[in-house]
Amino acid sequence: MTGAIAAFVAFLAKERNDSPHTVKAYGRDVQDFAAFCDRYYGGTWRWAGVDRLAIRGWLGAMQQRGLAKRSVARALSALRTFYRFLNATEGVEVNPARAMRTPKLPRPLPAHLDRSEIDRLFADAEHRAAAGGFVAVRDLAMLELFYSTGVRLSELAGLNDADVDLVSDQAKVRGKGKKERLVPVGRHAGRALRAYYRHRDALALSGTADRRAVFVNRRGRRLTVRGVQLAIKRLFAALARGRDLHVHSLRHSFATHLLDAGADLRSVQELLGHASLSTTQVYTHTSVERLKQVYHKAHPRA
Q1: Which residues are known catalytic residues?
Q2: Of 31, 143, 201, 272, which residue is 20 to 30 A from 11 by alpha carbon distance?
């Protein structure tokens, strides 16, 4: 059992190029199912001999442990993928997880900032940066880049100098599954980045400094994902509901404001790096302003 799971994890990481988070989660889910089967069958068992009752019992056990529906759905998806892997590598013909119904997940609307909050947030960040401190100038550049491109937290933290071209105003980011895409960099973000580069290059960096990273700390080392989070949370303090906002709120704001202004859904999908259009469509529910404009222009009795 352990050998099949180890081979599955290696397949996810090396051949499917899944993110480390996905690889770890899927491996943990299949291990958890194997442990459940040890208890359920009370002796020796085979992957090909597992039935739907065992899977139903496993799903029920996860719910009794208090796992969220999203976690249960992911675990079921992991098991389905594992059985497809067994079919391709070991000829296991059954996939008892395929017929199981995925728990219905709630689709909460993504939290985003309205235009007035964006204006207030950037005004405060620009005021801090005007004092000329390295950290404030860097944080403004990160804020501008987040809102200008809609990149994920990990994508911004992983940016290298070679990825950002301020001549052509674009950046290359590496998203989920190591997929690369090009995103445009707006003029405000470009200006903030140039100001940050001047401050960064003026630092007396040590020999251990990371010469490739775009965003660094005072010692010249690449800013970690946690470091980026803390920096943006400091900027959110300027807003009344700053404690409720997260870095991903800037990505949600980017998508929502583009759709409000009439951007094509497919284009927004490409900019966000979504594999499925259905993932992007959640933002259409927040674009009430755009829908009202269409309604008032098109309806004869609006």
Answers
A1: 152, 176, 248, 251, 274, 283
A2: 272
